[in-house]
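[stage:ingest] chain + small molecule (norvaline)
[stage:ingest] validated
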Amino acid sequence: MSTLPVVFETDTVTRAPVESLFGRDLVSIADYTSAELRTILHRAHALKREQRARRAHRLLEGRTLAMIFEKPSLRTRCTFETGMTQLGGHAIDLAQQHMQMGTRESVPDVAHNLERWVDVIMARVFSHQTVIELAANSKVPVINGLSDFCHPCQIMADLQTIEEHRGRLTSLKIAYVGDGNNVTNSLIFAAGVLGLDLHVGAPQGYQPTGPVLERARAMALHTDGEIVVHDDPVAAVDGADVVYTDSWVSMGQEAESAERMKVFPPYQVNAALLAHARADAIVMHCLPAHRGLEITDEVMDGPHSVVFDQSENRLHTQKAILTLLLGV
Ligand code: CP
Ligand code: NVA
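[stage:predict] done
[stage:export] tokens:
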């Protein structure tokens, strides 16, 4: 096993306390403490510097990641596989059409096989229950690469991106506009754990659920976070430092597309909506973007957009998560 280069001990970007995450799963951000999330971010910043400087950081030599995809992906697939390569390890893409998890073989049996061969599992699934079941039955760490409920890896990359552009996460108004979906849920949990000021602008019927808000607000009581839900997108964006949006139709919701297209147009992130944010606001999108729907070309390609920084940071935060869960 490689030892950590000195850069991790002397890093001054976040001054995070180093928490051991060895052997943990990452199913939801809500399962982690503030110190643990800061540990991941600290490592992500350090690994980004290592990668940018082209310094070798083969911390996972000989280790293997199994990647399960029930849904399509560009970023998650590419960044996990590239990340393992850069860390000196290897990733296997288990195509769902061949593995047929849940039909050809049960979820627990898939976990019991994989744990005998690989060091860590990443799963992108339809039902959040599937990732919970994988984690419950696997002796090796399981990372949620998106479920219908949450997308923790995405939000970790987004937090890294906000820190890079604003130098901090707190004392910022963060607005999320659009569908109250898996990405929103992870953002809400991050707000609770880390004490962020989050304003969600979403239409009735598509707002975050009561249990998600209650859990995050209970955490926010201890962290000075604030989580506000608005019907009005302008109220959410007013004076915001960060304006975030995502698809109006998530993977698996295609049958609701026509209905959703009637509801969401007032929530489009366009120049008129962005005019209500701070003049130096950053615009975020987890991608893939549906240009002309939830975000206009003008905004996505404009000077406020940091969407490709978010995309790049998937690589660095996931390398941080992989190394920390594997105890290096
Ligand atoms: N943002 C994100 O998870 O992208 P992919 O669906 O392409 O993996
Ligand atoms: N909410 C989107 C995110 C895609 C990365 C979806 O689940 O399809």
